Each structure stands twice: as structure tokens, then as C-alpha cells.
Amino acid sequence: MVEMDPKDGNTARLAQIARIWNERALGLISEMDLRIEQAERDGVKIRMPFNPDFCVDDEGTMLHGGILTALLDSAFGLANFLAIENVENMATVDLRVEYLRPAQSRADVVVFAECYRQTRHVAFNSGRVWFDTPGLPEVARGFAAFSITCGKSSLLDKMNTMGPGN
Question: Which residue from 27, 60, 62, 151 lies 20 to 30 Å from 13 (Cα-Cα)?
Fold first, then answer.
């Protein structure tokens, strides 16, 4: 989980975003049991514990590529919330994943995602995926563009006042 200094206002905002993100996970994302290890304006680090149900081989070691894509997409969305103030709406408009080697391991999967550029209506993201195994190279890299709308009220505020799934 994320460690935050309660005296720091920005840190409190980041902790609030991480808490809401964890509480409101639905569908596949909730099944992935994602754990935020780092939540900062310049990026987010998320761990997905090994789950043999996400594997496509008989040995239970080869992760399905769609799991990595969903992991990156979710991490990119969280990175955007951390980097951009007052996001009212956000949607993935482009997502590309470059698979660098077979996603074969029984180790946890770790992703780092960042919002590296923002225009008035678009956020650009990049990310890296690897297994938590010393010495192994990255499994994949991802890149995305999100359509964003910013305003006086934020999606974060709306999510904070609604129950899970609303």
C-alpha cells in the first residue's frame, strides 16, 4: 500500500486518489488484485500478484497478453489522475503494447506508468512491465493517449461521493 505523509496536502490528495482507485475497482481489474506501491505526480508503480487463472498454458506460467494490456490501461488512468488536476472525464483513445519477450513466470507482475505530456484535451502515457524476478528483462512497454476534460469539478470528487460501482 502507499505510504503518505498526512501533513502534506499534495500527498493527502494522492492518497485519496489511490484509496478511491482501490475501492472502486470493478470487473477484471478487481480480479487482478492490484496493489499500489508508489503513487506520485511523476508516476505510479503497481503490483499484480501472480495468478495462474490468468495463464494460457498447462503449466500456469504464461500470462495472457490481454492481462498485461488491461494492467497498463488501468495504470495509465491512475497516472493521469495523479498528474492532472480536476479531471472531469477521461477515456482511452489509443493504446499500444510492445511485447518484448514471452510473459512467462510465476512471479508478481510490476508496472510503472507515467503521464509524460498533457495538452488541453489529451494526456500521453508510457509504461513498463516486468516480473519481480532479479535479472529478467522487461516483458512489455506500453504507450497510450487519453482524451481528457478538465473543469471546476473533478471526476475524483464525484467518485468520492458515490458508492462503489456507480
Answer: 27
